[in-house]
């Protein structure tokens, strides 16, 4: 059992509060990604889980045991750092062994652990090299090896891929996912890269200014963002947030969106609870539409709006078309060769994927 | 073609001028050393015969032998040997102590920061600018109270404590460039304060240890003021003994012995530079450039 509970944890440096009552709870084998921009407190939180930062308020429990006052070595954790933090004067083998030596584990057991970890990570041929003789990806593997031999209850990763080049980053991402699948250990992983969060996590905590904005499965975070901030942070290109006026038509809502020099677009059939419908009917809301939820209107997909494309950016698998909607710039992800700059186009919208936000609080309306 | 030739001719002339200047300056700079070496190898009569710069007609090591083991210092005619030993007994513990304490100070000031760490570091820096003369009387009083006055251990204490400011500065600036994640990783691995220092931090610090040792060795070995102030008689370091050899003579001034004695006093620092010099420059510039 290796659960992690973060219970109303606060962190303050003097009067500066960097974490405000953060509560996160994950189960055994979960892969929790703390996602947010720099300065949102995610690394501070990770360091607090590790025991490298003190906890101002609240409790952190690992496997049900409160660890607030335990030193890092007594928390049964292992950590991989952004800079890898390999000991520069030790060989790869000594780096991996260091923690076991301190815990006075017998030589034979150490050798076995080093062998298992280095086989798993395919670094056996590097064991006698110094870190300075390794490439970035190899250093990354060694850092993970050092963590694995600890056999901890909890793995902590602090932006482990951000020092790698783009190609290697994708490879190592897959590697980490595979490792998690094989070891099944609970992982907490800090990143500012929403793709890493989407691909790796079983649970994502999106953070901003020391507050968890949403804690959910990655797909749920993507499909049903809790607020406009999360909607914009997760997904690339970001979710389009368009001002509109909400109308009620029977049991469903209709968003009325202004389009310059054209009649207003009416996107109907948005499902909404009866209570929200009553409350927001006739009021301003924000409509969230993912770029891929637009499509070129066909006989089966009736046109919802007619727009003029400003810019068209082919990316290969699809084309990004940019146009004005409701006074803001909106991006649609369309199949290649279907969009042309300067032309008008009739677009359909997948209304089942639309998310509505309150125009003042910017939180999701259900 | 002709123009190109004259161009290269001009360049060669310029180069010749540069090298010429360098050679002249180098010779000028080496002149005193030359005079010292040849004088120490000449018999006294030859020197008084007026040969000062020239090559010795008779090469003899008598003056060196006299300086090492026969010359009279005060009333004792023991040569420099016992004072050389005194200096070694002083310099080795003093260098080791000041470097060791400086390393731990630097380690704490960078990796185990505490409130007011910068203030403490500022105070220590201030110590670098204290002139020797300013601390003579308080130090004499302190040594007296500690019962170390006039002894080699007392001198070790003076040099070690005076050197801590410099060594702390060296180590602190070196450790600042080591990533903090290194210490954090070691903490997660279960290492404590001293284990991290010994196993992780110190092995990466060879260049700055060498810098600190060379710096402290030269400072302490060459020091005269503390030596003459805090020791007397047979516990003097070599610099004080050298002064006594040169200044206290009866009869003819023995230039050859004086020169030999001066060189004996200078040899250890030279050796240290030659052996560890390449680390010196590397250590001083470490942190300035990554790599």
TrEMBL record, chain A:
<dbReference type="InterPro" id="IPR027417">
    <property type="entry name" value="P-loop_NTPase"/>
</dbReference>
<dbReference type="Pfam" id="PF17912">
    <property type="entry name" value="OB_MalK"/>
</dbReference>
<dbReference type="InterPro" id="IPR003593">
    <property type="entry name" value="AAA+_ATPase"/>
</dbReference>
<dbReference type="InterPro" id="IPR040582">
    <property type="entry name" value="OB_MalK-like"/>
</dbReference>
<comment type="similarity">
    <text>Belongs to the ABC transporter superfamily.</text>
</comment>
<dbReference type="GO" id="GO:0140359">
    <property type="term" value="F:ABC-type transporter activity"/>
</dbReference>
<keyword id="KW-0547">Nucleotide-binding</keyword>
<keyword id="KW-0067">ATP-binding</keyword>
<dbReference type="GO" id="GO:0008643">
    <property type="term" value="P:carbohydrate transport"/>
</dbReference>
<dbReference type="InterPro" id="IPR008995">
    <property type="entry name" value="Mo/tungstate-bd_C_term_dom"/>
</dbReference>
<dbReference type="GO" id="GO:0016887">
    <property type="term" value="F:ATP hydrolysis activity"/>
</dbReference>
<dbReference type="Pfam" id="PF00005">
    <property type="entry name" value="ABC_tran"/>
</dbReference>
<dbReference type="InterPro" id="IPR015855">
    <property type="entry name" value="ABC_transpr_MalK-like"/>
</dbReference>
<dbReference type="InterPro" id="IPR017871">
    <property type="entry name" value="ABC_transporter-like_CS"/>
</dbReference>
<dbReference type="InterPro" id="IPR047641">
    <property type="entry name" value="ABC_transpr_MalK/UgpC-like"/>
</dbReference>
<feature type="domain" description="ABC transporter">
    <location>
        <begin position="4"/>
        <end position="234"/>
    </location>
</feature>
<protein>
    <submittedName>
        <fullName>Carbohydrate ABC transporter ATP-binding protein (CUT1 family)</fullName>
    </submittedName>
</protein>
<dbReference type="GO" id="GO:0005524">
    <property type="term" value="F:ATP binding"/>
</dbReference>
<keyword id="KW-0813">Transport</keyword>
<dbReference type="InterPro" id="IPR012340">
    <property type="entry name" value="NA-bd_OB-fold"/>
</dbReference>
<dbReference type="InterPro" id="IPR003439">
    <property type="entry name" value="ABC_transporter-like_ATP-bd"/>
</dbReference>
<dbReference type="GO" id="GO:0055052">
    <property type="term" value="C:ATP-binding cassette (ABC) transporter complex, substrate-binding subunit-containing"/>
</dbReference>
Automatic annotation (TrEMBL), chain B:
<feature type="transmembrane region" description="Helical">
    <location>
        <begin position="88"/>
        <end position="108"/>
    </location>
</feature>
<dbReference type="GO" id="GO:0005886">
    <property type="term" value="C:plasma membrane"/>
</dbReference>
<keyword id="KW-1133">Transmembrane helix</keyword>
<feature type="transmembrane region" description="Helical">
    <location>
        <begin position="120"/>
        <end position="140"/>
    </location>
</feature>
<dbReference type="InterPro" id="IPR035906">
    <property type="entry name" value="MetI-like_sf"/>
</dbReference>
<feature type="transmembrane region" description="Helical">
    <location>
        <begin position="257"/>
        <end position="281"/>
    </location>
</feature>
<dbReference type="GO" id="GO:0055085">
    <property type="term" value="P:transmembrane transport"/>
</dbReference>
<dbReference type="Pfam" id="PF00528">
    <property type="entry name" value="BPD_transp_1"/>
</dbReference>
<dbReference type="InterPro" id="IPR000515">
    <property type="entry name" value="MetI-like"/>
</dbReference>
<feature type="transmembrane region" description="Helical">
    <location>
        <begin position="152"/>
        <end position="175"/>
    </location>
</feature>
<feature type="transmembrane region" description="Helical">
    <location>
        <begin position="196"/>
        <end position="218"/>
    </location>
</feature>
<keyword id="KW-0812">Transmembrane</keyword>
<protein>
    <submittedName>
        <fullName>Carbohydrate ABC transporter membrane protein 2 (CUT1 family)</fullName>
    </submittedName>
</protein>
<keyword id="KW-0472">Membrane</keyword>
<comment type="similarity">
    <text>Belongs to the binding-protein-dependent transport system permease family.</text>
</comment>
<feature type="domain" description="ABC transmembrane type-1">
    <location>
        <begin position="84"/>
        <end position="276"/>
    </location>
</feature>
<feature type="transmembrane region" description="Helical">
    <location>
        <begin position="16"/>
        <end position="37"/>
    </location>
</feature>
<keyword id="KW-0813">Transport</keyword>
